[in-house]
Write a structure and sequence with these properties.
Blueprint (H helix, E strand, L loop, with lengths): L33 H4 L3 H4 L1 H21 L17 H12 L3 H14 L2 H14 L1 H5 L17 H38 L4 E6 L2 E7 H20 L4 E2 L9 H6 L5 H11 L3 E2 L10 H30 L2 E3 L18 H24 L9 H6 L2 H20 L1 E3 L1 H9 L6 H13 L8 H9 L6 H9 L5 H9 L9 H8 L2
Parallel strand pairs: 3-4
Antiparallel strand pairs: 1-2, 5-6
Helix pairs in contact: 3-4, 3-6, 3-8, 5-6, 8-9, 8-15, 9-12, 9-21, 12-13, 13-15, 17-18
Length: 492
Amino acid sequence: MTSPVLPAAPTSARVDLADVTPPIALGPLDGRYRAAVAPLVNHLSEAALNRARIHVEVEWLVTLCNGVPGVATPVVPGAPALSDTEVAYLRQIPATFGAAEIEELAAIERETVHDVKAVEYFIKRRIAAAPAALGTTNLPAASELVHFACTSEDINNLSYALMVAGAIRDVWLPAATALTDQVADMARELADVPMLSRTHGQPATPTTLGKELAVLTHRLRRQLRRVGAAEYLGKLNGATGTYGAHVVAVPGVDWPAVSRHVVESLGLTWNPLTTQIESHDWQAEVYADVARFNRILHNLATDVWTYISMGFFTQIPVAGATGSSTMPHKVNPIRFENAEANLEISCSLLDTLGATLVTSRLQRDLTDSTTQRNIGPAFGHSLLAIDNVQRGLKALHANAALMAEDLDQNWEVLGEPIQSAMRAASVAGVPGMENPYERLKDLTRGQRVDAVRLREFVGTLGLPDDVAARLQALTPASYTGLAARLVADHLA
């Protein structure tokens, strides 16, 4: 087989973009779309991971020195009791973790070639510097309790739980809730605007535009409740989940109680039974719920896109914006198309995270380490989609006149209430109501029926006067049932 011929490189010298300063982003989330996803950097970046690791190590150290209720103080005999000033000094280490500290930690890791060990040495440097900052202090005597009896995963699992919880609580959930509230506001505003439904793309029983948006709101809110109720589990039990090193080094301590105290003091749920790793089941659960929210939002984006294509929504042009490089009349629904693509990417990543993280060979393998470094992009693409849908919805105007015209061209949809009224009349003993469905099917299926023809038909049926009058007054635009009430009743 002949190898493909690659295009020749340019003959003139060109700039190597990998050498440009400041560095050029490889991916769109850190480049083109940085502004929309920047809040996640504080929670799901590599720097945020290292800050969380420092936080966990510090809280473990404080606990070993100052004890927990029901356990001897200190937990490790001979450990110095730390004063409030010393504890505050330790807690400032993660709090002040900025650009200089990020570079310092990176330099240490280049030597250790181990990220968690680098964090341990970073903290020990700060402890060694404590006398200069605090004067007389017992902190240096506690230095060897940094990372005491821990495996890397003790620190990592707690750090990721804190990171994901923070990202959802402080960034994703507020954005997703704001979007859902925006859709709810639109639903209430448009609750009385009648619209012809489509099932299988064909004219169907009328509804209101607001009721259709209310359905999507209700679905989105259900997923938000699930995400908001998520559990974030953590463990702190050593290299194989047995507290082996703990018990040998310091026997007689209720180490599970110490572990539980630390995990719960971090705001997490204690997992008492694990291998070397926390099993990550909670991650799979929350990612599935976020992905389900994404997919419902994708449904909203495709529906709104369709309404735009039908003219039911018009887009308010943005001054100076271009819809097409060659067709000046176009106002493309790019916000919803962008959202669709980003939601699909986010769901793919979240599905992969959930599927991969729940499996680990025996005590552990490192597939979870690489996988979890993609949590940020998974949430980033979702957040970017949310931003696009919000911006897209703000630029929409409901075209009630066109929807009314569409309804007026489809009187055949009233075949449903007419045959239903005939069924009710038949049950009530009214004669001549036989085969109502079939009679309406013969009249309407695959045919256009105008108001005159439909009303003539109703007049020939022999219905009670009040029923006939009710049907004679019915129009496609008024045949919306309880749509408006459903919006009012179920969208708080």
